[in-house]
């Protein structure tokens, strides 16, 4: 359980249904009590984060897991928008993507991503990666409280 006792929210921005399912399963297998909110494209992600329309009552996440290759609005654009917004930039963003492209890695850090991780296609390794992310970002580090 997180040290402040609050239930944490992870915002997963991912378009691949299989990856969504696997990441959700990996998150369920840990001791951290967290809610997982999901957006399947970049436009929906920004609508959620800005609490617009159907997401007016959404809880700001404690952590964002962001894929780069998204429909409608690319993950790189989403990252740039998050880090440019004074209401969102403090939320840690972990790029979790299949891309191992050096330019993607460099550009993500240039846009102030907190961490860049390439997804493994090996199920066991993917579970270890997701558990490691959750353990570090939700149990170890001190995060700013995002929602009053």
UniProtKB/TrEMBL annotation:
The keyword Phosphoprotein applies. The keyword ATP-binding does not apply. Residues 9-134 form the Response regulatory domain. The modification 4-aspartylphosphate is found at residue 67. Pfam families: Response_reg. Keywords: Phosphoprotein. GO terms for biological process: phosphorelay signal transduction system. InterPro entries: CheY-like_superfamily, Sig_transdc_resp-reg_receiver, TCS_response_regulator. CDD domains: REC_Rcp-like. PANTHER family: RESPONSE REGULATOR RCP1 (PTHR44520:SF2), RESPONSE REGULATOR RCP1-RELATED (PTHR44520). This is Response regulator.
């Amino acid at each position: 359980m997180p040290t402040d006792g609050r239930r944490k929210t992870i915002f997963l921005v991912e378009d691949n249904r299989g990856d969504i399912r696997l990441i959700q399963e990996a998150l369920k297998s840990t001791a951290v009590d967290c809610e997982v909110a999901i957006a399947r494209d970049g436009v929906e992600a920004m609508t959620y984060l800005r609490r617009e329309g159907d997401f007016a009552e959404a809880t700001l996440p404690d952590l964002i897991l962001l894929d780069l290759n998204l429909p409608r609005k690319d993950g790189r654009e989403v990252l740039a928008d998050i880090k440019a917004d004074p209401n969102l930039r403090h939320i840690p963003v972990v790029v979790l993507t299949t891309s191992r492209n050096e330019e993607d890695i460099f550009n993500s850090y240039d846009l102030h991503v907190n961490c860049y991780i390439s997804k493994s296609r090996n199920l066991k390794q993917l579970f270890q990666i997701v558990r490691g992310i959750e353990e570090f970002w939700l149990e170890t580090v001190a995060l700013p409280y995002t929602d009053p």
